[in-house]
Design goal:
heterodimer; A: 310 residues; Rossmann fold; two-stranded antiparallel ribbon; disordered C terminus; B: 541 residues; alpha/beta; Pyruvate-ferredoxin Oxidoreductase, domain 3; 18 helices; 21% strand; binds thiamine diphosphate; binds iron/sulfur cluster; binds magnesium ion
């Protein structure tokens, strides 16, 4: 049986026209169609936010769970343990993951819960109408101009890298080709695949100084893709040229992915593509069980247990 | 001695190994055929703060403590003054000082030097000296006691020998003042606490997942479960989450996917779980939570007991909610209700609480093996999986905590919302939860209501109160209409509980027009019949 485009469709989106989140879902549908992921084996799980409304917009035959703000990750961890055979797609926002849900996010990375974890990152709280998120860059004002962000942003990709996540990528909702490829790879990954997707909010963060606006992202995005793996050829030199940036790779070995996002960011670029991509893991995921092996344990147990008779 | 009632108060410093010794003393009584209860009053600290152990032995088989002690063993100078205030009899002090009266002299400090052991072992062994002395004081047989000691240290013959030696030092030093009459056993006593019992209940219920975050006094519930699962090589998963928000989230996720999962916590953790519990309620997902209550708001007195979470748990989370709350009153019920909880939450697809407390959860009680075995037929077997589990072909659905119609479609319709919340209430109110137990004189106009661990004082209270009274033991909330109707028949109603504001009385009064006089003990000490009786007399004035 082949699944068709129709199988990955669902109700019409209620997000603002032009919202990046809708594009992400379109690319996700393509990736699911291409990989022929059986809809009934998909769990779509989200927190709260505009980005978290998206489970309703794709794969109607899948199992969806729109939970509460910031708790997608731990709830998905429980689902994954109970049903390890299912393909879990977590959909979250920058508020949902980088602020209220940061603790659960970090610990889910540590658990390496097998799932595709998407953050639709617009640098703003969309659903509550435009407040800062923890990924809003320094110097960016709110749309109404009342406030300017002064605190350093959290880079979720770097956080994931620090926690040895084996699959870390950043992409842009508007980049169909790159994002679809990344999503397909992520769907095949055996652990937690984290993707930070810049996803402009046309209502509250598409104004000029925003670093998550369509204009800004189109100009500043820097694709790291192929360049980012140390290949036999690149290893022959100790320096890698990327656009006009030089990266020291003397410490790297073949197969490594270079994390040069810091140097790119300093120059105003948004590094995109894979940050980490390791297929096999030495990491131990939590023991998964499905069936309780019933043993005639009980009477035996009480004997083992403390029973004292005189 | 045929009729007796003695309370022994042992005050020590925690971390000195006294809890092992005290447990042995309790067992020496129990396995000598003497009814005994033991309560550990310990600090929230690892070593160096005062700690008490109280043992009460009664011919009446009372389950609770009384306020005065008949014998004090003081190994803690710091609390001596306070300890003497609650003393009605003899006192043995380990460390004498000029200003403290020494009624009986038990020179533990010098006695322990007689043992040829390294200095480091003297401290724990010193405890065994008073155990021996108390055993002799009450006329316990040496053979029974040595059996208990050998059994306790069955892993090491040498340790058993040393402990026995120390025990005998005290035993021979003291003289027999009383000879308590022992009972014949009809069945072997089993000493078990509520948390151990609930852990057994989880096994019986075939619980597949336990997600938790350590907190006194609930930790030992999950730790016991984990130990059994590992000893028996079962495939259940026990996972220590990063906090209670995640612990309950993971529990909910596993339940949503169709597994039997639970979490256990205490007050502070329960506060963190509130939002997720509302999700389970509104999105109709089974969820089982054990709350082993401790005392106070905030951190409070984390190692003291309380029934202070009743109203909070019953309506946890914002908005209009209502959760079934099971109220185990002893280890047998802690065992059974662990199983009922899954059954109820799967039947109703809602959050269910098992509300135990520190006193019930962490103090050993005399039970019998049979009480933990005959549940096979009654017990819930995992047979009520959700009709549709994620992964089933052609069955996709959306579960959401935002407004939704019966098909799960997003909805903000006032009518749809109203029908939803009324339906949620109806399904819980019309379910057959464990009903109340009534006993005593049904013709009396006086009704005494109690629940949970408060049950331990009821037989004694019945003996203390001169009037004929009727008792109503609440096993679960919300009450059935039948039980509410019973309640309506009484004009003189009292409710005994362990919280400041009479939470159960408030809940009942919101359903029935009845005046309830609350009799409340809420200082963290295990509830005592004589204190409640005093409150009753004051209420009569
Ligand atoms: C506990 C809690 N606090 C606050 C809110 C209000 N709230 C809803 S969505 C949201 C922020 C969403 O931001 P983000 O995750 O970035 O999603 P976006 O709408 O930008 O896609 C907040 C604060 C809530 N639902 N729950
Ligand atoms: S408010 Fe922003 S994030 Fe929300 S739907 Fe509109 S554009 Fe998208
Ligand atoms: Mg956002």
């Amino acid at each position: 049986m082949t699944y068709t485009k129709e199988d990955y469709s669902a109700q019409t989106s209620t997000l603002c026209t032009g919202c990046g989140h809708d594009s992400i879902i379109n690319h996700l549908k393509s990736a699911l169609l291409d990989t022929q992921t059986p809809p009934h084996q998909i769990v779509k799980i989200s927190g709260i936010g505009c980005s978290s409304k998206t489970p309703a917009y794709f794969a109607k035959g899948a199992y969806g769970f729109n939970t509460i703000h910031g708790r997608m990750a731990p709830i998905a961890s429980g689902v994954s343990l109970a049903s390890p055979e299912l393909k879990i797609i977590g959909l979250s926002g920058d508020g949902d993951t980088a602020s209220i849900g940061l603790g659960g996010f970090i610990h889910t990375l540590r658990r390496d819960t097998p799932m595709l974890y998407i953050v639709a990152n617009n640098g703003v709280y969309g659903l509550t109408k435009g407040q800062f998120s923890a990924t809003t860059d320094v110097g960016v004002p709110t749309k109404n101009g009342f406030k300017t962000q002064t605190a350093d942003p959290i880079d979720l990709c770097e956080l994931a890298l620090n926690l040895n996540c084996r699959f870390v990528a950043r992409s842009f909702s508007g980049h169909k080709k790159q994002l679809t490829e990344i999503l397909k790879k992520a769907l095949a990954h055996d652990g937690l695949a984290f993707i930070d997707i810049i996803s402009p909010c046309v209502a509250f963060a598409n104004h000029d100084p925003s670093t998550k606006s369509y204009n800004y992202v189109k100009e500043a995005q820097t694709y790291m893709n192929e360049l980012d793996f140390i290949s036999e050829e690149t290893k022959t030199s100790t320096e890698l040229k990327l656009k006009n940036i030089s990266i020291d790779i003397s410490d790297s070995t073949v197969g490594d992915v270079i994390n040069h996002s810091q140097s790119l960011k300093k120059q105003g670029y948004i590094p995109m593509g894979f940050f980490a991509l390791k297929e096999s893991s030495t990491k131990k995921q939590i023991k998964k069980t499905k069936n309780y092996i019933q043993k005639e344990a009980f009477s035996g147990l009480l004997n083992k247990y403390e029973v004292e008779t005189t | 001695m045929k009729n007796f009632d003695f309370q022994i108060r042992i005050s020590t410093v925690n971390g000195s190994g006294s809890s092992t010794a005290n447990e042995i003393l309790l067992k020496c009584f129990v396995f000598s055929g003497i009814h005994a209860v033991g309560k550990n009053i310990f600090p929230s600290n690892i070593a160096g703060l005062p700690t008490w152990y109280l043992i009460r032995v009664t011919s009446q088989k009372y389950e609770g403590l009384k306020s005065q002690a008949d014998l004090l063993i003081s190994l803690c100078r710091e609390t001596l003054e306070e300890d003497l205030k609650s003393l009605n009899g003899d006192c043995w002090v380990a460390k004498e000082s000029p200003e403290t009266p020494s009624f009986l002299n038990l020179d533990i400090k010098n006695q322990v030097k007689k043992l040829s052991v390294p200095v480091s072992l003297r401290k724990p062994l010193a405890n065994m000296i008073y155990v021996g002395a108390v055993a002799k004081h009450f006329g316990l047989e040496l053979s029974t006691c040595s059996h208990v000691i050998k059994k306790r240290f069955q892993g090491s013959k040498e340790i058993a020998r040393l402990n026995l030696e120390a025990f005998e030092l005290g035993y021979h030093e003291a003289s027999e003042k009383f000879k308590l009459k022992a009972d014949e056993f009809t069945s072997a006593p089993l000493l078990i606490d509520g948390n151990q019992a609930s852990a057994l209940g989880l096994l019986e219920a075939q619980c597949e997942f336990a997600f938790w975050y350590p907190i006194t006094p609930s930790s030992s519930l999950v730790e016991n479960f984990e130990k059994h699962v590992s000893d028996l090589k079962l495939s259940a998963t026990i996972y220590q989450a990063e906090d209670e928000i995640s612990a309950v989230g993971m529990t909910l996720g596993a339940s949503w996917a169709g597994s039997r999962a639970m979490t256990a916590t205490s007050g502070p953790g329960l506060s963190l779980m509130a939002e997720t519990v509302g999700l389970a309620y509104f999105a109709e997902i089974p969820l089982v939570i054990f709350d082993i209550q401790r005392l106070g708001p905030s951190t409070g007195l984390p190692t003291r007991t309380s029934q202070g979470d009743l109203s909070f748990a019953h309506s946890l989370s914002h908005g209009d909610t209502l959760h079934p709350v099971l109220l185990p009153s002893n280890p047998e019920e802690a065992f059974q209700m662990a199983q009922f909880a899954f059954e109820i939450s799967e039947d109703l697809r809602t959050a269910v609480f098992v509300l135990s407390d520190l006193d019930l959860g962490m103090n050993l009680k005399i039970s019998h093996k049979e009480d933990f075995q005959n549940s096979k037929n009654k017990a819930s077997k995992k047979n009520k999986l959700p009709a549709l589990q994620p992964g089933t072909p052609l069955g996709g659905f959306m579960t959401r905590g935002s407004g939704h119609d019966p098909q799960g479609n997003y909805s903000e319709s006032p009518q749809v919302y109203k029908e939803k919340v009324m339906g949620l209430k109806k399904k819980i109110m019309s379910y057959n939860l464990p009903s109340c137990i009534f006993k005593g004189d049904s013709k009396s106009s006086k009704l005494f209501i109690y629940y949970g661990s408060t049950k331990q004082i009821i037989s004694e209270l019945q003996d203390l109160i001169p009037d004929n009274v009727y008792f109503m033991e609440i096993k679960a909330l919300p009450l059935s209409q039948k039980d509410i109707n019973q309640l309506k028949l009484f004009t003189d109603v009292y409710c005994v509980e362990q919280n400041r504001d009479g939470q159960m009385a408030q809940i009942l009064q919101s359903q029935v027009q009845v005046k309830i006089t609350s009799l409340l003990q809420f200082d963290g000490w295990p509830i005592q019949a004589d204190r409640v009786f005093k409150l009753y007399n004051e209420a009569l004035l």
